[in-house]
Amino acid sequence: MERREFLKKILKWIFILIGGGLVLRLLSVIRRKPAPIGSIYENYDPTEHYYAMGIDIEKCIGCGRCAAACKIENNVPKEPYFFRTWVERYIITVDGETFVDSPNGGIDGFPPLGSEKEILRSFFVPKLCNHCDNPPCVQVCPVGATYKTIDGVILVDSKYCIGCRYCIQACPYGARFLHPKTRTAEKCTFCYHRITKGLKPACVEVCPTQARIFGEVKPRNNPLARFVRMHKIRVLKPSLNTEPKVYYANLDKEVT
Fold this sequence. Notes:
By secondary structure, this protein is an alpha+beta fold. The chain has eight helices and eleven strands. The chain is globular, with a radius of gyration of 22 Å.
C-alpha cells in the first residue's frame, strides 16, 4: 500500500509539471500575438505585401559583397561561422565529383580552382533563410519566438527566444545560428527594418551584377514577377514541402 501511495504521488506531480509546462507555453504563444498594425509598422501596411527573393546563378560572380553587406547592416558577429547569408562555390569535376567550399562565407573571395582540365564546370550559389510558406522552424519553437509575419517574412523575437536551438535543428537549409552574446537564434530577415521603409535588402542593394532580385510574390508588374516568368525556377529541397520563397534561376541539380 505504501508503494502504491508513493507511485500515486509521483504520477500526480508529473501531471502537475506537464500541465504547468503546457500552460506556460500557451501563455507565451498568446503573448506573442502581433500588436495592432499601426503600433509596429507606423505608415507601412503589411497586408499589401508578400515578399520573396530571386537569385540568378549565372549572374553571381562570387564576390561576397552580399555577405559582407549583410554583416555590416545587421551587426552579425565577424567570426567566419556566423552568417545570415553566404555564398557557396560548387566545383564539378569531369569524373562527376562535386566539391563545395565557402571560405568565410565568400566574403574574402575563393582560392584558385587548380587544374582546369579536371573541372567540368564551377559556379556560385548565394544562400540564406528561404522564408518558407510552411516553415518547420515556426512549428518547433516552444515559446512562439519564431513567427511568420503578415507579409510572409520569418522573424525571431529575441525577447521571447530562450536559445533552445530547436529552430536551428529544424531548419533544413542551415540558415540559422545562435548569437554568441545574446544566446538567441538569428537568421536572415530580408532586412525587415529596410523593406518596411521601401528600401531593398542590403544584399540586393550591393550586388554588382543584380544576381539578387527582391519583390512581391503576387503582383505581376514587379521585377521579381518578371524574373519568375522569364526563367525556369527551382527551389532548394522541394521534396520537404517547406514551400521556400527564395527562387533560383539556372540552378544546377547538384545543389542541395
